[in-house]
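Protein modeling request. Please complete all fields; requests missing the sequence field cannot be processed.
Requester role: graduate student
Desired output: 3D structure, token encoding
Chains: 1
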Amino acid sequence: MLKKDLVELCLLHLLAQGDQYGYELLRRLHGAFPDTQESAVYAILRGLCQKGCSEQYVGTASDGPARKYYRLTDRGTARYGELLRQWRALLDALTALGIT
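Delivered output (100 residues):
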């Protein structure tokens, strides 16, 4: 599982917790992957929308400009489960080798 897949897994995990706007997702993700480029995160978010794993909508305006929110779809929930299974299999393989 490569870093892109891990970032995708993390984004899907965060979206499974509820709708979130892009900057909030980016901020939370930077806590785990501080060297991840903002453009890469938004590219993955766009890809998730294109694959039907998430939907984007404009939320109600706050004090600033309207925010783009993302929500998980049924397809995204399935993708999340698939990536989570891959991650757990990788952890099991590493543990079997004594790496973790």
